[in-house]
Amino acid sequence: MGKRGIAPYRIGQIISTVLLNSYILAYVQGKVLYQGFFKHIPQPVLNCYGGPLAVFACPMGSFQQIIGTHHVPWLVIGMFVVIGAFIGRTTCAWVCPFGLLQDLLQKIPLGPRAKNKKWISFGTITGIAMVALVLLITLVNLAWWKVFLFGCLPFTLLVLYIVIKGKMDMPKRVWGGGFLVAVGLAVFVWAKFGTDYGVVAGVFGMVTLGLTGRKLAAIIGAEAAFFLGMLGPSFNIGPFSGAVLGLLMATIAFGLVVLFDRVIKVSLPSNYLKFFFLILVVCIVAYKTTEPWFCKICPAGTLGAGIPLVLWDPL
């Protein structure tokens, strides 16, 4: 059997990546990002418009920017409707630069595919993570312990879990009680600590409590609610504060999980999580805060714009 050539969709990904990031004048003209006509046209893929070479606008970023001004983003919605109606997800496979990156990372064997090379793969992936860690600490001047504790360590433990277990099966159902508790705690964190912490807590909580459900979600949710309520007398809800507020929140969290997960057993397909996430972050949070929060946590934005901009001009 002869050697296989490059798949047609891969050629499409490469061409689109080059075309969507073809503003070479950014380097020639002294680090000036493109702000012309095409930056007002949303592209049907994830390719951050803040990237040094980006030509078109990101649909998610455009949606948030417009909805943040309390207007309806008709152009972006129309683009999604037209693309979705005529070609569906074809753009994800043939055009999306982020899809190309995902496919390349998929070449690193992990889980059942790795077989006897699993530890080599683990070393490769964690090595990439450590390089990113050093770059963040050096160029962005972030505290090393924060980057390690909140970024590198959870990622490494997740990869290690997959290596040891061989795979990580995603539950097919997301449990309603844990999901509601996570949203409630995120709102509480938002009110006390600010939007950024609330968004992070909400995303992490929806996935963790929604997928675990039942006993584990009840225990984790109750403990988290108690400690969040134990913020001292400076924070209160009506007449409740301190330990009393913590106990009240823990009871409510535990009761919600038991009611929805154990008694009436409310659940939804886990793939709905992405829609909940988009509605929460892209619509509600962007509308309320007038900030593009999806862009701040978007992996495509980090890889396509954040890191290149830092390396381009770290000061």
From TrEMBL:
Pfam families: Fer4_5 (PF12801). Keywords: Membrane, Transmembrane, Transmembrane helix. The chain crosses the membrane at residues 74-98, 119-137, 143-162, 174-191, 197-213, 243-260, 272-289. Residues 76-110, 277-304 form the 4Fe-4S ferredoxin-type domain. This is 4Fe-4S ferredoxin-type domain-containing protein. It comes from candidate division WOR-3 bacterium JGI_Cruoil_03_51_56.
